[in-house]
Amino acid sequence: MTTTPIRSTVEANTTVKHEVKDLSLAPLGKQRIEWAGREMPVLRQIRDRFAAEKPLAGIRIAACCHVTSETANLAIALKASGADAVLIASNPLSTQDDVAACLVADYGIPVFAIKGEDNATYHRHVEIALDHRPNIIIDDGSDVTTSLVLHRAHQLPEIIGTTEETTTGLVRLNAMFKDGKLTFPAIAVNDAETKHFFDNRYGTGQSTLDGIIRATNILLAGKVIVVAGYGWCGKGAALRARGMGANVIVTEINPVKAIEAVMDGFRVLPMAEAASIGDIFITVTGNKHVIRGEHFAQMKDGAIVCNSGHFDLEIDLVALNEQSVSNSFVRNSTQEYKLKSGKSVIVLGEGRLVNLAAAEGHPASVMDMSFANQALACEFLVKNQGKLHAGVISIPYDIDQEIARLKLQAIGITIDTLTDDQITYMNSWTVGT
């Protein structure tokens, strides 16, 4: 990975600690943040209430997220709430440098994120987030929470709780709880209906294809696209790919999800069989080495491989390197590996999240609900401090429903309400046929 030198240029009137690429990019970032904000009416309403009520006054928050224009609107809402928040990147390739600059220069929010930062810089930023001595961690993949538990046990008494944005992060948190290491509440934001039904399905579905198209400029119609994993992200990618005219194959390890994919009209095969058929491969499983050396060996010449799962482990790039004689970038975010067999395999976004490495991530309108969940989860943790059990807990039903209600209201849609007679019927066990 190319390492981008850190520039921590502080203007005379800026005292906020930060590490961003260049503060002079702030005007472009402000435009981008405001454009995204137009599509985030739910978070805007929450921000306005937060500004009036200050429900997080004095609460220290460490947020580890993709530093995008949508995340910026969450950070601004947290500052309006009275929180003392620090923001770091959750992925080395997802940062929008102009957005990071704007948050520092225009909003006074400490940001430590540079697009292309190396792993050492990323881990140092995790330490900076923990040096903030957070009461709440907003996590995306649970790296900050894991580092806290493993290396900062003396800070655990200061933790009110965490919120987790991703399926991958929740897998880690559940394993942590099973091992007796998760001693505080962790809100499963990813499991909120107003998050995974929309963000994962519609957001990941659209933005993954957007990343593929931006990186390659290829026509999807008529291509064979292999989607590894049929969770909500996989469903979104498969549905959108079919909508663009692709022939979609799904690979799965879960028999129920495999049946669902079949009944949704997709062909289901093991990766060992799909490898020789696919033109484009998308991994969205949350697991490691879904595409391995034996699969690369079977692929067509010029097969394209990309990942939309959180970590860059889904594609076994070590094995691919071992099978290759060379690799080089042939376009932005597009790397060609020349195999010893004479064939080539194309990897997009260095195996990291293609929708953020090669595009701009989820559309703001779906992140509106996801980040509304994050903001309200933080408020819930503070209001219920000392009352919640340790472990992974769900977003309260009434918060989920309120976010959906606000979204409908913002887009001008009304729905039916139950009559008194219907309420009585729904709460009765004596009325039947």
UniProtKB/TrEMBL annotation:
CDD domains referenced in this protein's UniProt entry, alphabetically: SAHH (cd00401)
Record: residues binding NAD(+): 166-168, 200, 229-236, 252, 287, 308-310, 355, 362
Group of enzyme by EC: hydrolase
Residues annotated to bind substrate: 68, 140, 165, 195, 199
Pathway connected to this protein: Amino-acid biosynthesis; L-homocysteine biosynthesis; L-homocysteine from S-adenosyl-L-homocysteine: step 1/1
Any one Gene Ontology molecular-function term assigned to this protein's record: adenosylhomocysteinase activity
Keyword NAD annotated: yes
InterPro entries registered for this protein in UniProt: Adenosylhomocyst_ase-like_sf, Adenosylhomocysteinase-like, Ado_hCys_hydrolase_NAD-bd, NAD(P)-bd_dom_sf, S-Ado-L-homoCys_hydrolase_CS
Cofactor binding note from Swiss-Prot or TrEMBL: Binds 1 NAD(+) per subunit.
HAMAP family in UniProt: AdoHcyase
Name under which the protein is recorded: Adenosylhomocysteinase
Naturally occurring in which organism (per UniProt): Tumidithrix elongata BACA0141
